[in-house]
Amino acid sequence: RSMDAAAAAAATAAGAAPDFMDSVTSPASGASFNLFSPDAWLAESYKALGYEKSEWRWVNGVSPLSTWREVGIGMALYLGTIFGIQFLMKSRKPFKLTKLAQIHNLGLTLLSLGLLVLHIEELAPIISKGGLFYAICSEEAWTQRLEVLYFLNYLTKWIEFVDTVFLVLKKKPLQFLHVYHHTLTMVLCFTQLNGHTSVSWVVITLNLFVHVVMYFYYFLASCGIHPWWKKYVTTLQILQFIIDLGFVYFCTYQLIISRYYPSSGLPFCGTCAGTEEAAIFGCSLLSSYLLLFIQFFQRTYSKKQAAKRQKQKTQ
């Protein structure tokens, strides 16, 4: 650090202000540390746990929860747990779980926000230097640093299973959309990690943004505050899936045409990274989400509006 101090003194003598960041050192390694970089803090967290973030890679069968067997067991445990609790709660009074719900919802709000900021930090230079097509289709756009974030996002889908546990303990009705969405979003994240689909960041960042809004709403509701904008959370989710599908259909089209029909005369921009299986599964699942959320919106809000208008007519 004596050389750093000398350099800073020389810069000051030359009329330039010393770089504050040069004086900050990593608490774990003593190396230069960017205080304002979320990724730097994440790397420090890894070091505190005894890992080197820059060396981590998703390896099927080696990384945690990286096999179809683990995913299948997770799905079975989730479904068995929620329906088992629902059965046991039939003759019992509902639990309130107010404090636990507040902690859970606020925790997921902050976790989603943190991951969103981390993704933006990584994606901004990729998009600005390579362009949007590069960012969603190039194999080089699937970076090691993004892979770490995709894995952390995948882990949050396991944490979100707790949402449903709270619902059944409070004896709230279980909707097919809720269970279907929670179960298969975890599978979607798993398949995209395996498939190395570079467009994954579009779906993930939009989902994280929606979850910041959604879990913050749930936190307020668990505090007894019921904002007027509940309806717009569902609207935001529908908009999310429309944008998702625009990107994933485009990328899947590029992938299939460039690999199998390059001489067909059909227009395409170039190839897209990822496996066909991951691309088709993503397209199919996100399409089903869009249809189910539109159906939910119509059933929940359109009927309420119709009933409200009918009530006004009879008054």
Report what the structure shows.
With 315 residues, the protein is an all-alpha fold. Residues 1-23 have low confidence and may be disordered. The chain folds into 2 domains: 1-36, no CATH class; 68-305, no CATH class. The N and C termini lie far apart (80 Å). The chain has 11 helices and no strands. The radius of gyration is 24 Å and the shape is globular. The longest helix is centred in the last third of the chain and has 39 residues, at 276-314. Keywords: Acyltransferase, Fatty acid biosynthesis, Fatty acid metabolism, Lipid biosynthesis, Lipid metabolism, Membrane, Transferase, Transmembrane, Transmembrane helix.
Low-confidence stretches: 1-23
Order of helices and strands: HHHHHHHHHHH
Shape: globular
What's the structural domain tally? 2
Compact summary:
By secondary structure, the chain is mostly helical.
Question: How would you summarize the topology of this molecule?
Answer:
Elements: H1 2-13, H2 38-48, H3 68-88, H4 98-130, H5 132-137, H6 144-159, H7 161-169, H8 176-195, H9 200-222, H10 230-260, H11 276-314
Helix pairs in contact: 3-7, 3-8, 4-6, 4-9, 6-8, 8-11, 9-10, 10-11
Give keywords:
single chain; 315 residues; mainly alpha; 2 domains; 11 helices; globular; disordered N terminus
